[in-house]
């Protein structure tokens, strides 16, 4: 009974506050505010695509109310950008999707193939020559639209600093050859998805921030607005090999998961 009374009083106070706020703003924010709240609720219920649509629509309508912003054509352009990006991303996606499987014995691909995972196009190298070559992660990468997949072959991990406007990133650290000491992975972007898979025996620290979206890290799964989390494994500072992961997105999904 007390729980019901508390929730009932909470709803009354919330509604009164919203009414006063809307009166003060001359109803300019009423529509965007309702759409924004719906978007947040959808994200919390894991309806991500619908939640993002409501959030973007609320921002566009607010701009239209305040600055007479042509939100219709802006929305059309954003939808075209989003659709084009997904076509671009899916064209280069590996056939196997989702959570990568643990390491299995399989023949290495020829070195003449381009290294999409490393973000660098390798020159053609005859098979059998330079067999000691290792694929490395990019030191720095900045792009408006791009994707980085490092899940299908072994690679040498070096410090990474990547910045995107629209991105799709998948990294499997069980495939990585990790040097001793502290290694860093820094990823930032406006819109996109980041998935990093870590083996059980690797010491990591994680700092993840998303303005509107979904976070899925060990011990923390939540969607909504302004989500952030920081954590580290026990013994991280004393570990011989450790990886420091920092990911920040404006809109998107961030996942750092154990295999």
Automatic annotation (TrEMBL):
Cellular compartments per GO CC: membrane
Keyword set, alphabetical order: Membrane, Transmembrane, Transmembrane helix
LiaF transmembrane domain segment(s): 8-89
Biased composition range(s): Basic and acidic residues: 93-102
One Pfam family matching this protein: LiaF-like_C
Residues annotated as domain Cell wall-active antibiotics response LiaF-like C-terminal: 145-256
Keyword Heme: no
TM segment ranges: 12-43, 50-66, 72-88
Biased composition (Polar residues): 113-123
Region (Disordered) residue spans: 93-123
The protein, known as: Cell wall-active antibiotics response LiaF-like C-terminal domain-containing protein
Record organism: Paenactinomyces guangxiensis
Taxonomic placement: Bacteria, Bacillati, Bacillota, Bacilli, Bacillales
